[in-house]
Design brief:
Blueprint lengths: L7 H14 L13 H18 L1 H7 L4 H22 L5 H16 L8 H13 L3 H13 L9 H23 L7 H22 L1 H6 L7 H6 L4 H6 L4 H21 L1 H5 L2 H23 L13 H15 L1
Helix pairs in contact: 1-7, 1-8, 1-9, 2-4, 2-6, 3-15, 4-5, 4-6, 4-7, 4-8, 5-7, 7-8, 8-9, 9-13, 9-15, 13-15, 15-16
Length: 320
Amino acid sequence: MASTYSQSWEGALFKLAQEARYPAAPRTPMRVKNKRLLEHAYASCEVVISKHGKTFNMASSLLPPEKRRAIRALYAFCRVTDNIVDCSDASLVEKEAELASWRYRAVTASPPRDDPVAIAWADTRLRYGVPYKYAEQLIDGVARDLRQKRYQTFPELATYAYSVASTVGLMSLRIIGTAPGFSEEDAIPYAIKLGLALQLTNILRDVGEDWRADRVYLPSDELHTWGVTEADLDGGVVDDRWRRFMRFQVERNLALYDEAWPCVAMFNWDGRFAVAAACAMYRAILKDIEVHDYDVFSRRAYVSTWGKLRRLPGIWWHNW
């Protein structure tokens, strides 16, 4: 299947993915022979996702056991990375040092025995051939949050979203695998867009929360186009300017989901339902934002557990 790019940023992100697939010096993790240690490592990842990833936990539960625990090891790797930046009172210098230490443990061939998430993640990388460069790209993207608080244009934001989200989709693609008749090369452009769509949903949902952390992921030039100022963000102003701005953001986000949707059929059959469920659950967050008049300041958009569960039969029917 030929890849075509309607926007310049699409080709740039595809290039980043290709660079990560073929590192100059591959780092193949050593096999963990201690079964008890390995089981403890994966169990620790289960604890992480049960505490922090409700939607991801539900979607990944639809995978077969081996792939489920691998995807949850991936989630735990991502969560540890995020927590270093977001869930600590440490200084900037201390966070950067901790992130550098985690970067080493997360991609080394032989992780320390007292780091269960690093052990499970190394085993997953070995079993499924996950390029370590994807993990490094994700860590680099999360590290940007330590110093960069604003994004001027959508292409700039797309590059950030690739690092922190599309890389997750690309690593998931390695774990779940592709369906007969498709290659990884076929799926990559769509997996990139899928990660971008999911991250943009996070950004639109978390505008108020991010503002309180002095972060604005909404492109500055687009805020200016619709006449929205940072003073409006600070005041949580929901007026016609904001509604028009958010309507545009949501419509673009929905278009990205539509453009990425062919990726679902490219995943191996035993993971397709999980990927489709994750997409549908996140996409429903956008509907919740619309229903509540684009107010992302006084409340956090979400989909209830029942709302997720009742969508599953339709998702299954649509994909099989």
